[in-house]
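JOB MANIFEST
job_type = single_chain_structure
chain_count = 1
residues = 612
[input]
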Amino acid sequence: MISNRVYLFKLEQAPLKRKLIIIYIIMTVIPMGILGYITYNQNTKAIEEQVGEYIPRLLNQANKNIENELNLLNDLPNAIYNSKEIMSILRSTPYKEKSVFLQERYIVESFLSNNYLNSNRSDILAAFLITNNGNYISTKVKFNGMDVENSILPFGELHDLAGETPIILPNKTNLTFEKDIPFILLVKELTDFENRESLGALIIAIDVNFIGRIINDIDKDNKATMWLMDENGYIIYHPDKTQIGQTDSGAAEYPLLNGSFRTVNHKKENILYSMNQSVNKHWILVHSIPMKYLTERTDTVKNYTLTIFLILTIITTVISIFIAWSVTKPIKQLGKVMKEVEGGNLHVTIPPMNKDEVGELAEIFRSMLEQLRILIQKNYEIELQQRNAQIYALQSQINPHFMYNTLETIGAVIEEEDKETAIVMVEILGQMLRYSLSGSESLVPIHMELTHIKNYLTLQKIRFEERVSYEIIGENQLPLCYSPKFIIQPIIENAFKYGMKKRKRLIISINLLVEEKNLKIIVKDNGPGINNEMLQSIQNNLNKKDYFTRESGLGLANVHTRIKMLFAQHNGITIESSESFGTTVTIVLPLITNPCMTFDKRVEGREEYGEN
């Protein structure tokens, strides 16, 4: 039950194409296969019954022919009764001179040879005449084991024959012929009808091949095997000479009723056994034939049918696959388009569909996609305006911040009554104000940002004199590229804010380099550094998703926020610091070389900077 549920669950989860093919197989191929199988089995069974009923009748006729042949052999002793000379010798006294005895032996054995061995009965192997006057032998083939002195049958037993002609099988005697020729012995009592006395017995050895000639007429194609055995299973005749004289070990599998049949599986082969028992002799004639010979024509028809069935199955399966493909192809195409839309591509092209259910679904999806693009465009424009306002607000926060610090520095110089230095500082401040107030663009050439930083550092150098030194590395190796405004100054301000309190001399290094289509600005100082707890707090503050709920909108958070809003998420700043060993701040920006790059294009083209 559980396995059936699992199979049904798997079938429910299978692709539509596979389901259609499976349904086709269930509805067509399987019923056709079952119908063919039942038809073949019924035909085979009908043939088996017809043959099983027909062959026993043939076996019955063969048994009668064998009995008729044996009845003809019963008349062979009549030749002795018809010969006055032989009868005179048999009636004579046994007490004779040797010469007379030898002459009579010659006469009798010549008679036996001429009348039995040289007759048209070629099956007779030998004739043994056992009489009161002596034993006479005439044979075609050499033999062993015939005790002619004691005779096969004691003379006392001959009176019990009552005129019958018994048959002695080889297993009842020690007689054997050269080359192990199979035989049976016919025993006929010789009686003197004048005085009703027994004269002896005529024993004729007959080759059993005459049985083979009779039963071979039943199977001229030599496809069947037939043999003759007695009631105890002793094989009298068998086409396989080695089986003659053996006891049939498979007799238990044969039909129990006379004239019946049975199919038996023997060595992985079905064999039809039929049998018939002789009424007079009680011998059993067995017929066996492999079913494959009986069903040859049926098998041929089956093979042709199976071939046609397989061809039709292949053709119809191909047709079903094509139909399933034609049904599922538009669905797959529509699914592929939906996958692209899921990936963010709203400008996909939906291929033309048929005017069926799938085509209607595609048309509905096309209309829905069009409405979705319109809504996204509206939402995008609203979001774009909001982001522009946010970035401008963040950037505007920088202006009063650095203005306050710079004016504080100029005020300190004026207090020292250094007019020339104050004039230089005011000029530099003017340049910085022009840079701060020049336009509302978010991106500026990197050299302008570096000039602004140099002005800022110059002001701080004037203020702190020998306590401050700085260097800018890699400026001349940079290509023409662009960066947001005021991304370096807040970092430098932090270095002064915390470094000048605990260092006699503050050293600042700004290194610019290009790596893998990214612009890296590395700001390093020798300040007091940041302990691990404070560093983790700063990192958590930078990683907040809502840029405007951070603890501070200035400094590092301001720079990091603007970079994230302008570019991909992997851009921004990272901080490395150890207490008492200074701080390194790395700014990662995309390498922007297009001076016409606007904020709109940067938002639409974020994949260019690696954001998916």
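[summary]
Residues 151-162, 548-553, 598-612 have pLDDT under 50 and may be disordered.
Residues 34 and 479 are 80 Å apart (CA to CA).
exit_status = 0
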